[in-house]
Amino acid sequence: MGIEALLDMTSGVVPDRVATGSTTRGRCFADMARRAAGGAALLTATGARHVVYLGVQSEVFPVAVYAAAAASLPMTPLNYRLPDVDLAELIGRLDRPVVLADSEQRHRVPVGVPVLTTAEWFAHAAEAEPAGPPGNPSDVAVMLFTSGTTARPKGVLLRHDHLMAYVLGSAEFLAAGDDDCALVAVPPYHIAGIASVLSNVYAGRRVAYLADFTPRGWLETVHREGVTHALVVPTMLARVVRHLDGAPADVPGLRSLAYGGAKLSASVLQAALAAFPTTDFVNAYGLTETSSTIAVLGPEDHRAAFASDDPGVRRRLTSVGRPLPGVEVSIRGEHGREVGPEESGELWVRGPQVSGEYAGIGSVLDKDGWFPTRDVAWVDAAGYLFIDGRGDDTIVRGGENIAPAEIEAVLDRHPGIAEVAVVGIPDEEWGQRTVAVVVSSDGDIPDAEGLRAWSRERLRSSRTPDEFVFRPTLPYTPTGKLLRRQLVAELAARPTAS
Amino acid sequence: MTEPARLTTGARLRSQVCSTEVIVVRPPKGAVELTCGGAPMLALDAAQPGGTATPEAGLDTGTQLGKRYAIAGEDDFEVLVTKPGVGSLADGRTPLEIKAAKALPSSD
Known about the structure:
heterodimer; A: 7-stranded mixed β-sheet; B: 6-stranded antiparallel β-sheet; 4-stranded antiparallel β-sheet; 10 strands; globular; Fatty acid--CoA ligase family protein (chain A); ligase activity (chain A); AMP-bd_C (chain A); AMP-dep_synth/lig_dom (chain A); ANL_N_sf (chain A)
């Protein structure tokens, strides 16, 4: 029995509740279940061994996820923004795929690969005769490619029992009220897009979609659809805050705003807390390999930290909270030895939702089931988890390990800085030297000397950036991950450093 | 004879004596004989019919939709009621208890 059980359970109890779309014109859970069953038969009939989803967020996506599960076929949503050549390469790695593609994307599927158009498949699914044996819980339910910001994309295998352990361990069955509505603005190929399909169906919560994010469109959708719960990646929240420009968001119906997927700058969070004064904030931390969220900083944590004068409590606003029940964390330093509170090391995690398995590579769990996240992290005495960024991003300058996050956090507090990224570029003398790439706030361009002095007052001298570079923007993926590799390449390719 | 259903995470079971259905949230570490109304629970897709049995006296207080049930004093085994009924859930003949819901904030 796999993740399709979630839809079966909810549609069995509240068949007529609206599952997707608007309250007046949306589709109910019974409709979703009917299409998932019929859609499974259509997928089975193609003889394919793998389902690819190439399209934007819509009511079709959850039906596709549950249909693939019911047909015992792994589902891989792909990034429709990838260039054709990359798309073809990823599709080429899959075993006998069938592609469900939006009509705008259909022509991009390589010749010879069977394609069904999402709208047509969705329509036919309502009439197709359901069929197909139940799946095996150890089968792969979802395979997601990592975003490839640091290396070639890897296919993460999430089996039914990982995803079920996550949903059953982190959400409550039918916890949503009739007036609840979640706004999904993350794309289908992001782990949060998968998690929202599972959690919201299990909770019985109506979902509205925003396929192309703009700050104005997001705020309008929150108003129009009566959205009570939303999840955003940090770049989205930063754009909403900038769009509001100090004005209140004026969305009293929005009860919960979750953010995650990358680090949110403290200044954006402060502005967001002010713009959404009646909304509960939730910081969710997780990885694709861990079936999404493994730690949350909840609304009470946010309020307590925001109101506290104790710096040890206040800094928890920059933490990712505490691990979910069922998830164990361990911070390991040199030679894999576990370190104590306040000491930084690599974050390892363990639990039934943790996959740690890649297509063509296998499991990277150790013999006791621990997964190395490659994130640099530490915990405080109360167990709050702080993430200092990817281990791959660590700068080694003159033999000293420097986490960019530490320097970025200091510079982020400078009033003249809107965004900042600190990277290491090759240096003959130091091995690497630190470069702070700065986007200045409007109308207030800081000078490099002033920033150097600001840093020197707050950081030890070896961590004061060797160089400041100003840019109009920083490069991000559409899901908010900073493209550090691109920054490093651009900086290293300059004719001579100034 | 009744084939005991496997109690793995995500496994779904049904009662032989009433409309109760459950899903396993957390598998047991040791041996558990999951019963409803005094009769062993079956896999949801098991071939045998629900039968005409009625819940035994003392095991007939019913199940509540959406509640989690566990063995008193132990925290490894947990099932969730996805359809309610009139039988009581038990480990053998020892009734399970309702667990308080964890109030985790929604992050999806």
